Fold each of these.
Amino acid sequence: MNTLDHKELLKKVRRIQISTKHAVNDVFAGQYHSTFKGRGMEFDEVREYVPGDDIRSIDWNVTARTGSPHIKKFVEEREMTVMLVVDISASHLFGSGAQMKRDLAAEVAAVLAFSAIRNNDRIGLILFAEEVEKYIPPKKGTRHVLRLVREMLSHQPHGKGTNAAPALDYLNHVSTRRNVTFLISDFMFSDEYEPLLKITARRHDLISVVIGDKREIAWPDIGVVNWRDAETGEQVLVDTSSRKVREQLGLEQTRRAEAVDEMHRKAGIDTIRLFAGEPYDKQFIKFFRQRASRR
């Protein structure tokens, strides 16, 4: 990366840090804490029973083995790990307005990361395209979050296509304990990841964040255009002056979105759908409140 590119990257990271500050301080942090504060109890040790202990905590196996009553002692599990699994494939380099899908993905991930460290949680990152491109282990701190944002904005993937299966498989191997995982992608790929999606949803609290652009659904009338698939390189002429063509293109995208939502619903995964260039705070607040109501 040359000096100019480095300066531009730092400016972009700084802009995201500033633009997300209000959301984190005034909107996300409290909602995030209310939604994810319950982390349960963690086993600490076995010790001898003393009068006054709750008899429901007696460890009968140890008691039988030692001949004297012992109880299991638990402590509140204070820290939680949050993993961001972010799609950086070529399809994210699309944006019909002032923001590309990749920039929105990075901004949303930054808000979640800053909210996590406000909650004293650890945050980690997996970047993927056709394969896993980068893994940054979970840590705390603002400097760590800024590093994650830089990686999301600057990393150049080796492949252009998308496959979520290797990323989910990798997550399940590096995260042996249950965590909260946000899978951030436009989900412009096949359903080959569905089996691993279900496995991951059983192991972790998996939430999908679908990144889109309204122009992918509602095409404008701009005449005949040479449309090129960013991932496959395939090119085709599209006559957008035809209302029928525009409607068919929009219908295909709508059906794809409905199929993704249905697949995630069957796997028991919550879905948040966002669009580049549009505010996202209301969608997240709605998600947080729905989760809180189910507690």
Amino acid sequence: MTVRWGILGCGDVVRKRVAKAIQDDPNSELLSVCRRDPDKLKQFAQDFEINHAYALDEDLIADPNIDAVYISTPVDLHLPQTIACAEAGKHVLVEKPMAMSVAECDQMIDACRENNVKLGVAYYRRFYPVVDRIKELIESGEIGKVLSVSAVTATAFAMSPGDDGYWRVLPDQGGGGALMDIGSHRINLFLDLFGAVDKVRAVCGTVAADYDADDCAGVLMQFTSGIQGHVHCYFGVTFDPDEFSVVGTKGRLMTRTLNGGSLYIETVDGVAEEPHPPNPNFNSPLIADFVAAIAEDREPLVSGDEGRKTNAILELAYRDA
């Protein structure tokens, strides 16, 4: 079967990866796109040779030729657009973070279940080969009993009014700042690796920026198992450390850049390096899995329930901060 896609929102991420991932997928076809800015919409449609371009989301959602919709709009639009897609019988793959709150996540999940459509969330790092290898080494006992997991991430977003994506630093549209936008990716990995969390403490603030959202955030988690998790994230930093580390009683697993895929295994025997690069287009495995979930009538690897768990930690962190 071929899944016919529409995309709501044609910003930076869609231009860089999402549209191409759909067009390259052998079981997908990108039919339609939507963006409110008419000039940018026209340019995007021309660049990607897409015949159907809509200025209004309701027009794209109503298109009877579309089977699935990729939602890449500001976070405050995820709920109404997901519900509208579900009620129109469209499967939904929504950008992270899934929604503004856990309550919104619940409404999205309910709408998709009631209308028998799939709901996935775009935490594409779950498909990284290096993450699979980290899981394998943890389960094998290579580094002994795990004590903690940590991540440091940053982006150079300077964000001035009028910039594409400025909504990311408007809490009423993006839900938060650095923690909500880039920290959510790492928290999703933490939960996949180590399960439920009992305690969350956080500090989030605006240190160097001119906007109100957090440009600097730190979160400490305690998992039900007792393992500790630490994530630090920043907006407006010219380099991205992109570090991911798991410490155990017999060693440590570390990526110097998670996106690069080089894994360092440190034990008493020394340091071994293994290359596990991701797909050149980070979003391609995400699209392939979502299409397979539709064909096989199963849940996507990163389902709405998975997205909800991440939102629950974000909500607790912001509340504590």
Amino acid sequence: MKEATHFPIIIIGAGPIGLACAIEAKKAGIDYLILEKGCLVNSLYNYPVNMTFFSTSERLEIGNIPFVSNSPKPTRNESLEYYRRTATAFDLNIQLFEEVQNITKEAEIFEVTTTKNQYTAANIIVATGFYDIPYLLQVPGEDLPKVTHYYKDPHFYAFRDVVVVGSQNSAVDAALETWRKGARVTMVIRGNEIGQRVKYWIRPDIINRIEEESIKAYYNSTVQSITEKDITIQTPDGLVTIDNDAVIATTGYQPNLAFLEKIGILLSDDAIRTPFINEDNHESNISGIYLAGVICGGMNTHRLFIENSREHAVKIIQHINTK
């Protein structure tokens, strides 16, 4: 059997924080490998094509590489270009489209099994984000091809009857963009208003479109069932069934906490299920396994962002460097 390749550090996830960890390791002269199950910055790639970040470009920077954008709020495409350029500038060691399936520990060495290879490592950094597992509607018809939890491009929905489920940034972007491409848009909103976290320059736009009835909105409502031709909505006035060609369910996403449990990371008993970490160095309850980025917040995925997670990389590598 071929001997597994060994690295002092294996980083799981090639998102911005995973890249930041690799950059800090390289600066410290520590060999490493990044393993990523998808493409480079896979979560950002899956954002809507026309998305604009809430953060300014300098808050998305890593490795002291300037992020120059055409406006104060960078776009998805600009961010993809920036992180590609950063990975190239540091010549980062990345294996893409290679998913980590399991991690076990033998003595002081971790054995890492992926879809392609076996590795060993002295330290593991988990920086897997939260964009891969959508919250499901749990209704009949959700598995139909016309239903998606990942909105990409508005042209696909032109001149069609589209239902957008949700009230936060992703839902509002999908509703406005598809409406502007000629879709007949209906929003299904669980609460009684458009989300307060919606980008401040977008929120008035969607509210005005709803008030003028260009976009229909059912507040305090939920989807009950979906068929090939229509969708049934539970509203305060009873069940409503409308014609429907496509459903964009922007119901949010959750981190892969099952993977953390599988490798032995302790989670809190409350609903947030926060992973155990030492806040000083981000080491978990397992010596040698560190957590970085939004995964540290458990189910509270709105607490940590690129701009306030970059420091995790510095803390982790400093701690590893003292061992």
Amino acid sequence: MDTQFDIIIIGAGPIGIACGLAAKKAGFSYLILEKGCLVNSLYNYPMNMTFFSTSEKIEIGGVPFVTINIKPTRNEALEYYRRVALSNQLLIHLNEGVKNVHAVNEKYEVITSLQKYLAKHIIVATGFYDIAVDLNIPGENLPKVMHYYKEPHFYAMQKVVVVGASNSSVDAALETYRKGADVTMVVRGEAISNRVKYWVKPDIENRIKEGSVKAYFNSNVIAIREKEVDIQTPQGLITLQNDYVIALTGYKPDFNFLKNIGIKLSDDALLLPNYNPETMETNMKNIFLAGVVCGGMNTHSWFIENSREHADKIINAIKENVKI
């Protein structure tokens, strides 16, 4: 087994795959390492999710993404990225998480759960979907509290509180309501987010208006118990009978991993990683960032469609400094 490469790519999501395609096309030896399954974050998206982007905007490597729908679904995306990886025979090690990266004689040693590798260049394309943003309230660790939502049937005939007003929260509220759940939304802001998909936003607003889905705006869940939740509202504290809390409060990159490999983060709440937007190289020589991990806590700034170009930027930067 080869253990030395020109480039090691950490993360086999859409952008990690795009980086692998670009590296292979340029003639570099490369390896993609992924702690879970192929496009692990997409796999863990809600089963019925529909992308905001059209299919051509999330294509990678010049490979057409063909769908009969205006907006592709999660299942179509899984099929597309799997076919891209297989048809291009990309070198990917799945279920092999990277534990650490450190410099060794002008190269980097990459230590995984299974092996050690050496590479001249590292591309970090780890996304942000694996670590949920906590509520930091009593009862959050109860089994009834979910930070991820998969599908609605499980919640049928249950009293469900959905925390948040983003796309994922709205989808969870509508889908569980339509499977027979008694749904209450708790929204920190004054309204449903304007980032919610334009064909979904009127639906949830009308369901709230007619009372099919209850909603408390300018409000926060402050405590969770086995069969109750406490909500602080503008009208005061209320207690609801409750079976499940779907707390879709957002996700964040693995900042500890970034810091441990030497990448500097901004001192403000956004924790933006330090990198050159022209080359995507970080403050660590020959370590690059690609994809949504570049946004720090501002996880809405990067998507597949506006970060897929990172792959070519990085490989072009490497080519300028390396003779193959």
